[in-house]
Specification:
By secondary structure, the protein is of the alpha+beta class. It has 11 helices and 14 strands.
Length: 407
C-alpha cells in the first residue's frame, strides 16, 4: 500500500479548500454559533448540559468498549488476524496500543468518537514510518483541501504551530452529517445549537432566580433625586439584603427616603419555564439518537436487555460503527487484499452487562453448531477443556436432501 510519500505536497497557492465556508452570523466568538436565545453555543460548552454530556459519553464509551478486529477470509475459512507486537500490525495497534505514548484502545477510540460526535469529523492518521502508530487528528485543526491535480489532502496544524499536508491515503476520515461537498461532516451542535442555546439560557436564568432567593425584581421610588452613584448604592443595598437562598422571603426594611416600593410579581406561569427544561432534554436526546430511558428519563419500554441493546445498536451505534469498519478496510488493507480482509466491531461485547442473555446466546449457538464450547468459554476468559473444540448439534435435527428425507 503506497502512501504517496514522493507526491508533491500542495502549497497555499494551489490548494483548494474542500471544507464548508461558514459566514456570519454562523461564526461568532471563534467557533461558537450564535442562537436566538443570545447564548453562544460551542462543542465544548454544550457539554455543560447534562443530557448532551451524558448522551455523548454513553455513545463514545460504548464504541470504545467494543473491540475492533481484523478478519481474513480464505475460500470459506474465516479467521481473526492476531496482533503481532514485533510487526506492530494493525490488529496490534487496535487491540493492544495504538501508539508509543501508551494509549489504550479504549482511550484512543474514546477521543476519536468525541471529535466525531461533537465536531462531526473523526480523523485517524497513520504516518508511513516505523514503528507503526495511529494518531487522532483534532478536527478543529484539520481541513480537507485539493491540489491542482484533484488529489485530496488534509491540512493539519500541529501543536507546535507547524502546518503540514497529509495525503488522504494516510488518513481514515469518518464523518456524520456530511455537508454539501461530501468531504466534511457536521457535528450534533451544528443542528442542535438552538436547542442547546435555549437550554443554556434556561440554566442561566434558573441560576439567577435562585441566586436572588426566588425574590422578584422590584421598583423603588426615592423621595429625592439621586445621581448614578446614588442609584447604584440603593440597588446594591437591596440586592445585598434580599439576594441569595439564605435571604429568600426575608422582610424588606426600607427607610423614610423610599416613597414607593413596588415588587414586580412573578406569575406562576412565568415560573413554569423550569418545567420546560425537561422537555428540552427530550429534544436533546433525539438529536443524539439516544433512547430517553438510557438518560434516566421516562420508563424503559422493553421486556429484556437484549431488545433494548438491539434497538440501541441498530438505531444509534451502527451509524458510527459501519463507516469506521468500511474506512479501515480501504485505508489499512492493501488493495490486493481488500476483497478477502475486513474489519468488524465485536458488537456482542455490549451483552457483557447482561450475563443471562450472554449465556443463552452462547447456548443456542453451541446447540446449533455455530459455536464450539471452547470458543464460548474464551469469551468469558475461561480455560478450554478436552473435546471442547468439537461442533455439537441437537440430534433430532437432520440435513435436508439425504436419501431418508427423499423417501
Amino acid at each position: 500500500m503506497g502512501f504517496l510519500a514522493n507526491s508533491p505536497k500542495p502549497t497555499l497557492n494551489n490548494a483548494v479548500d474542500a471544507s464548508p465556508v461558514l459566514s456570519l452570523p454562523e461564526l461568532v466568538n471563534g467557533l461558537g454559533a450564535a442562537t436566538t436565545s443570545g447564548e453562544i453555543v460551542t462543542p465544548e460548552n454544550s457539554k455543560s448540559i447534562a443530557t448532551a454530556y451524558r448522551a455523548g459519553n454513553i455513545i463514545s464509551d460504548d464504541v470504545a468498549k467494543m473491540p475492533l478486529q481484523q478478519f481474513l477470509r480464505v475460500d470459506r475459512d474465516i479467521r481473526r488476524v492476531e496482533p503481532d507486537p514485533w510487526m506492530r500490525n494493525i490488529p496490534y495497534l487496535l487491540e493492544i496500543s495504538p501508539n508509543l505514548w501508551g494509549w489504550t484502545p479504549f482511550h484512543f477510540k474514546k477521543v476519536f468518537m468525541q471529535w466525531l460526535i461533537y465536531w462531526g469529523n473523526g480523523l485517524i492518521w497513520r504516518p508511513p514510518k516505523r514503528p507503526a502508530e495511529l494518531f487522532v487528528l483534532p478536527a478543529n485543526r484539520t481541513r480537507p483541501v485539493f491540489d491542482e491535480g484533484g488529489n485530496l489532502w488534509y491540512q493539519h496544524t500541529f501543536l507546535s504551530g507547524k502546518t503540514e499536508y497529509l495525503p488522504d491515503v494516510e488518513v481514515l476520515h469518518s464523518m456524520i452529517n456530511p455537508d454539501y461537498t461530501g468531504f466534511w461532516g457536521r457535528g450534533v451542535v451544528t443542528f442542535a445549537r438552538e436547542t442547546f442555546g435555549k437550554q443554556l439560557g434556561a440554566y442561566k436564568t434558573q441560576a439567577k432566580l435562585f441566586a436572588q432567593g426566588m425574590n422578584a425584581s422590584a421598583v423603588i421610588q426615592m423621595g429625592t433625586k439621586l445621581d448614578k452613584e446614588g442609584r447604584k448604592k440603593v440597588r446594591d443595598a437591596y440586592e445585598e439584603a434580599m439576594s441569595g437562598t439564605d435571604n429568600a422571603y426575608r422582610l424588606a426594611v426600607l427607610d423614610s427616603a423610599v416613597v414607593k416600593f413596588e415588587p414586580i410579581q412573578m406569575k406562576l406561569a412565568d415560573a413554569q419555564f423550569l418545567q420546560q427544561i425537561n422537555a428540552t432534554d427530550l429534544d436533546i436526546a433525539n438529536f443524539f439518537g439516544m433512547p430517553s430511558h438510557m438518560l434516566n428519563m421516562g420508563k424503559q419500554a422493553y421486556s429484556s436487555n437484549d431488545q433494548k441493546f438491539g434497538e440501541y445498536l441498530q438505531g444509534t451505534l451502527d451509524a458510527y460503527l459501519v463507516p469506521v469498519e468500511q474506512g479501515a478496510r480501504v485505508r489499512w488493507v492493501p488493495l490486493e487484499d481488500q476483497v478477502r480482509s475486513y474489519f468488524k466491531f465485536n458488537r456482542d461485547s455490549l451483552l457483557r452487562m447482561d450475563p443471562k442473555a450472554r449465556a443463552e446466546m452462547n447456548e443456542i449457538k453451541i446447540r446449533s453448531g455455530q459455536l464450539k464450547p471452547n470458543e464460548g468459554r474464551e469469551k468469558d476468559d475461561m480455560s478450554a477443556y478436552a473435546d471442547g473444540d468439537l461442533f455439537y448439534m441437537t440430534i433430532n435435527n437432520g440435513p435436508i436432501g439425504v436419501d431418508g428425507n427423499e423417501e
